[in-house]
Design a protein that fits this description.
It contains three helices and seven strands, in the order E-E-H-E-H-E-H-E-E-E. It is 25% helix and 30% strand. The chain starts with 15 loop residues before the first strand and ends in a 10-residue tail after the last strand. The chain is of the alpha/beta class. The chain has a four-stranded mixed beta sheet. A three-stranded antiparallel beta sheet has the order 5-6-7, with no helix packed on it. It is globular.
């Protein structure tokens, strides 16, 4: 009897995937999938390792995240604490609506207003309806992209 490859099921996608790229003292970490009890510690472990390797600033690109539970929120608070102790910080880039809501409900909304130590706000959760408002500031203090509409259209200023 021969085997038919179409009868084999593909393995399910990973619950969470992490990728990162470093540029000077900042590391961009792309998070995709779910951040929950089964894997939140992997995100903390990765950022802790990056923090030991002289990365003081981590930007978490969360656009690919489809689910976050309280373990995920706890992981983000821990990441903020670890990097803060090292003199750095974390920026949440394109957080999903489920996360911005949890951050507000748990009192961890300070993560949505992240100051880089020089007064530049990187991520704001200013909309009261759960929509994240993103401000990406250039190193010289001027804003590069400002989306205050919540409709996904970026405005350059």
């Amino acid at each position: 009897m021969s085997s038919n490859p179409s009868n084999h099921h593909d393995s399910p996608p990973p619950v969470m995937s992490l990728s990162w790229a470093r540029e000077a003292a900042t590391t961009l970490v792309r998070v995709c999938g779910e951040i929950d009890m089964s894997n939140a510690h992997h995100l903390v472990d990765l950022v802790a390792r990056l923090g030991r390797e002289e990365t003081t600033r981590v930007v978490l690109d969360l656009a690919g995240v489809r689910f976050v539970d309280l373990h995920g929120v706890r992981a983000l608070v821990e990441i903020d604490r670890l990097l803060g102790q090292a003199g750095g910080g974390v920026t949440l880039h394109r957080p999903p609506r489920c996360l911005t809501r949890l951050l507000r409900l748990t009192g961890a909304h300070h993560l949505m207003l992240d100051l880089a130590g020089d007064g530049r706000a990187d991520t704001l959760g200013a909309a009261g309806d759960g929509r994240a408002t993103t401000l990406a500031a250039a190193g010289d203090g001027r804003a590069e992209t400002l989306d205050l509409t919540g409709d996904g259209r970026a405005r350059t200023v």
